[in-house]
Amino acid sequence: MTRREFPKGFLWGGATAANQFEGAWKDGGKGISVADCARAKFDIDVKDYKKQNAITTEDVLKALETEDTVYYPKRRGSDFYHHYKEDIALLAEMGFKCFRMSIAWSRIFPNGDDSQPNEEGLAFYDRVFDELHKYGIEPLVTMSHYEPPINLVLNYDGWYSRELITLFTRFVETICTRYRDKVKYWLTFNEIDSMIRHPYTTGGLIEDRFPGKNFEEVIFQAMHHQFVASALATKICHEIIPGSMVGCMLTKRTYYPYSCKPEDVLLTQQNMRGTYCYSDAQVFGEYPSYLLARFKNKGINIVKEPGDDAIMKQYPVDFVSFSYYSSQCIAEPREGLEHAVGNNSTAYKNPYLPSSEWGWQIDPIGLRISLVDLYDRYRKPLFVVENGLGAKDVVKEDGTIDDQYRIDYFSGHFKAMLDAIEYDGVDLMGYTSWACIDLVSESTKQMSKRYGFVYVDSDDYGKGTFKRKRKKSFGWYKKVIATNGASLFEA
Questions:
Q1: What is the C-alpha to C-alpha distance for residues 152 and 170, in angstroms, rounded to an integer?
Q2: H or E segment to which residue 172 belongs
Q3: Considering 191, 207, 305, 332, which one is annotated as catalytic?
Q4: Using CA atoms in the order 204, 209, 212, 215, what is the torsion angle rounded to 10 degrees?
Q5: Is the pTM value of this prediction over 0.85?
């Protein structure tokens, strides 16, 4: 029997984000970001994403008046800032080929509009990249991952302002120049589509700052500015770093019709278009006709400057990366159907799939379907840069953490990825799990919603030693990487 394994050079690894992982929110000259002003709402149902993500200008101003790190948990994260050598050594022990991370904009330009970059921040990432390269781990760096400087919200109204294109491209030019010999793989905006779901986090947009305006139009105007900025970032990166590759990053929402009722099928198709329109714009370099039709039918007017369309067309991304956690069912609203949740969205529950403790349905086949759909659509290399299971891990009396449920989750998804490569002809560059070391959850701001192969001793309120501990899945993933996936098929 032929040995089944992943292609040679497959980039196995894990993923994090600075705003959830680094901590040290004021160390080293770092400025305050939108994430530092996002309050944990432990009194609200974790499945109620609308209330979890709601924020006002008053909320931000209150946040700026306090040094609290209990109810502003992203200020502390997992303290990677002070543990990076230890953490990278653990990644190396697992055999990582790749580590996805982000550079905090506010660590380099504390206010976003500073005349000069912060050398302490630049030096910190130098140390991180040097440590990664010491172990032969390739960095995959997200330029913007939910962390615009708060100054750009309060004094520019976030990405609604055209000025942010200039400020962001200056940031990109700075980091590409500084790390030109250290980083080959880049992503522009994390889950750029998420601005429609949590505009504050992604675009620095707060609805009460736009009285009398159509807020949906505000969001898409900000999205346009990010599309142009992404294209310019791709241009800058290619010019400064020969041979570099720049990708977009999409929240891969995979929907199934709840039934064969034509209305369900049509609504599912419409929802899928609502996912693809953002990556379509970055891959094809132009707005898809169906999104333009949506703008026209809703009376949404996007203001462009001469040359914007040409910039988008000339500098599309090199590859498509995406997050995938679960799938959902779509149906016309009807009584008797149970809602499911996942990655800041709600739809109907699939009766054929199990769910996590947070209501996210577990569907490895959905990952294969996603890979096929994306590759058929774009014909560009793909990269799974987020995928994982949030769970309440328990440390036993002997100090061990038996997360067999996580192993089962990954095993099914890895096999689905290999099926997509071998049987469907998908070009898949690599895989980075979310999150390889426990960190503060984006959606609920919890530490108890754990994803890692490595446990961080901290609770939702920041109590703990922050010591790192290997889970059962740590050794399992180490073997998967060492055998390039062949161990998945061992009896």
A1: 14
A2: helix 163-178
A3: 191
A4: 20
A5: yes
